[in-house]
Amino acid sequence: MAVALYLIRSTAIALISLIELAMFARAILSWFDQTGESKISMFLYAVTEPVILPVRKLCERMHWFEGVPIDIPFMLTWLILMVVQLLLEVF
User: pTM of the predicted model, to two decimals?
Assistant: First the structure.
């Protein structure tokens, strides 16, 4: 049982790390690729947007951060992922 929990925890931590890396790459690429039509941009969007979308929808529904030129739901998602990863590593 302990081995199964360890494997699940390790897999979750690795998956969160990969998503964070993809989000970082997406943020950096957004500085250069303004059209978003490259295959790398489309791949990063497809990988990261399903994770960001619930936070984005919540912010839209609650009318938070309207008119802010920075993608706050993106940063909130990154922060949530970091907290979850930290909690998984501690416990």
Answer: 0.90
Contact (Cβ atoms closer than 8 angstroms) between residue 65 and residue 43? no
Q: Is 69 exposed, middle or buried (0-12, 13-18, 19+ CB in 10 A)?
A: exposed
Written as one string, the DSSP assignment of 15-34 is HHHHHHHHHHHHHHHHHH-S
Residue of 9, 15, 11 lying closest to 81 (CA atoms):
15
Mean pLDDT of the residues in the chain: 94
Burial 23-36 (b: 16+ CB within 10 A, else e): bebbeeeeeeeeee
For residue 91, the 8-state DSSP code is: -
Which range of residues forms the domain containing residue 25?
2-90
Task: Tell me which residue has tokens 């929808």.
Answer: 57
Domain count, the chain: 1
pLDDT tens for 55-86 read: 999 999 999 999 999 999 999 999 999 999 99
